[in-house]
Amino acid sequence: MPRIETDAPGQTVITTFEMTPGTAQDLMDELRAAYGGFISRQPGFIGAGLHMNDAQTRIANYSIWAKREDFQAMLRSDEMREYNRRFAALCSRFEPVMYEVMATYEGGQE
Questions:
Q1: Is the C or the N end of the chain the one with fewer CB within 10 Å?
Q2: Overall pTM > 0.85
Q3: Which whole-number Å values give the CA distances from 67 to 13, 28, 33, 83, 85, in the listed order?
Q4: Which residues, at least 6 apart from 37, have a Cβ–Cβ distance to it below 8 Å?
Q5: What are 8-56's pLDDT values in tens digits?
Q6: Rounded to 10 degrees, what is the CA torsion of 50, 58, 37, 5?
Q7: E-assigned strand segments in 38-109
């Protein structure tokens, strides 16, 4: 799992997906296929995590890339455009947003 650090180089992307419980597992399967078969093999990919809420109405995806341009190049690829069409068919909306890590906290530390 990627470490979240304020001084780490790279680009953080958080994508949220909204869907009904009836399509949540199908979307999670598509996301796993995208990461396992394509995204994780792209230049600049460092790591990612997929999270689903208890109600199965939201999925959050946290990914780290070496550079902003690496993420953007992956998004523009024909393969990713096809995956995005599949994602869109399974959810009401999704939005990737680039972030800068401003602070981190760990338990058990003062």
A1: C
A2: yes
A3: 11, 26, 23, 21, 24
A4: none
A5: 778 999 999 999 999 999 999 999 999 999 999 999 999 999 999 999 9
A6: -30
A7: 45-52, 58-65, 93-99
- Neighbouring-strand partners of residue 16: 60, 95
Which tokens belong to 103? Answer: 């602070």
Q: What single-letter amino acid sits at 101?
A: V
Q: Which residue shows structure tokens 């208890």?
A: 54
What tokens appear for 66 in the block? 């070496």
CB 90 within 8 A of CB 4: no
Distance between CA 45 and CA 42 in Å, rounded?
A: 6
> Which residue shows structure tokens 């199908």?
26
